[in-house]
Design goal:
- 38% of the residues lie in helices and 26% in strands.
- The protein has 239 residues and is α/β, with parallel strands linked by helices.
- The protein has a single domain, classed as 3-Layer(aba) Sandwich (Rossmann fold).
- The strands form 2 sheets. It has a 6-stranded mixed sheet with strand order 6-7-8-3-9-10, sandwiched between helices. A 4-stranded antiparallel sheet has the order 2-1-4-5, with helices on one face.
- α4 packs antiparallel against α5.
- 36% of the residues are buried.
Length: 239
């Protein structure tokens, strides 16, 4: 079963175009979204969620058109887009109190467990947190309402190696419980530890989407990406 299906996604900006991005995320799997800075990863995620209005394509989630059934689908999705930068002067406890009202499936016990795991003090405000701790706060909000699909933009960014490994262990546990994940990262070694599939975007266009092991063969994600990027760069030099 495909929890998320993206077909022909397009978005036009004056200096950048996202072109015909298509991929699918299976239930209980982890899909890694990779590409260089500016490749279109964040635009893809925000277009999927209708945070940015796409110019073309279709997004189906849980068998329904996500853009037409947002009110029904969004509570089943957890989204974290980088570090938490909202309500900088409100305490974490206040932010949680507001957020839980929007989710009938809010799990207070899970929330407490993640707060403890990430060592977050509910009396602190986001303005008092490091960049890595802001990322952890965003993840607590995304993980605490029983989401069936997590869409995470650079979730391990700013985390120390131990915290990153703990987060990857959470991802593996969620996957075992049937939760699906789509997350972008530049730390490709993280994906090699937990991802089933890979979607690779370069300059707004799809390079590959499918099984991770098939893509890397006997090498690493860094090796394969470097080869693709070198080839593209040499083609530009030849023009």
């Amino acid at each position: 079963m495909h929890v998320l299906e993206v077909k022909g996604l397009c978005k036009d900006y004056p200096t950048f175009q996202l072109r015909d991005i298509s991929f699918s995320v299976r239930k209980g799997t982890v899909m890694g979204l990779i590409g260089r800075n500016g490749a279109g990863k964040t635009t893809t995620m925000k277009s999927i969620l209708n945070i940015v209005r796409a110019d073309g394509g279709q997004v189906t989630c849980f068998g329904m058109d996500l853009w037409e059934k947002e009110g029904e689908i969004k509570p089943r999705i957890g989204y974290a887009g980088g570090a938490a930068e909202y309500f900088k002067k409100r305490t974490i406890g206040d932010i949680l109190s507001v957020t839980r009202r929007f989710y009938a499936g809010w799990d207070e016990e899970a929330c407490r467990n993640y707060l403890e795991l990430f060592a977050l003090d509910t009396n602190k405000t986001p303005s008092q947190l490091s960049q890595g701790m802001k990322v952890k706060l965003n993840l607590v909000l995304a993980l605490s309402h029983g989401a069936e699909l997590l869409i995470l933009d650079e979730p391990t960014s700013g985390l120390d190696p131990i915290s990153r490994e703990e987060l990857l262990e959470i991802f593996r546990l969620l996957r075992a419980r049937g939760v699906s994940l789509l997350f972008s990262t530049h730390i490709t070694s993280d994906l090699e530890k937990c991802a089933d599939d890979i979607t690779y975007i370069r300059e707004g266009q799809l390079v590959y989407s499918g099984d991770l092991r098939t893509f890397v063969g006997n090498g690493t994600l860094d090796d394969v990406m470097l080869r693709y990027e070198k080839e593209a760069f040499r083609e530009k030099l030849a023009l």
